[in-house]
């Protein structure tokens, strides 16, 4: 399930609330430039990227049936 809600219905950060403090998701963008431009054009996604409290970031992609999914996780 590609969502801010986990398959069991709990919030995304419950995977590990000690590590995860922000999340950006995107789908359908083919390049890193495209997805970063989209995130920066969105006030809420941009706020996550620029939040000075976040000191770590991980980005993951997967492609299923020709469609790329992106997840960006932030920590402190």
Report on this model:
By secondary structure, the chain is α+β, with helices and mostly antiparallel strands. Helices cover 24% and strands 32% of the residues. It is built from two helices and three strands. Strands 1-3-2 form a three-stranded antiparallel beta sheet, covered by helices on one side.
Keywords:
3 strands; about 30% strand; three-stranded antiparallel sheet; globular; about 80 residues; alpha+beta; 2 helices; single chain
Task: Write a concise synopsis of the structure shown.
The protein has helices spanning 32-41, 43-50; strands at 22-27, 56-64, 67-75. The longest helix has 10 residues, at 32-41.
Major β-sheet, in short?
A: 3 strands, antiparallel
The helix/strand class is: alpha+beta
Mean pLDDT: 88
What is the overall shape?
globular
Beta-strand residue percentage: 25-35%
Helix content: 10-25%
**CA-CA gap between termini:** 26 Å
Spatial order of the strands in the main sheet?
A: 1-3-2
SSE pattern, N- to C-terminal: EHHEE
Low-confidence stretches: none
Helix/strand layout:
Elements: E1 22-27, H1 32-41, H2 43-50, E2 56-64, E3 67-75
Antiparallel strand pairs: 1-3, 2-3
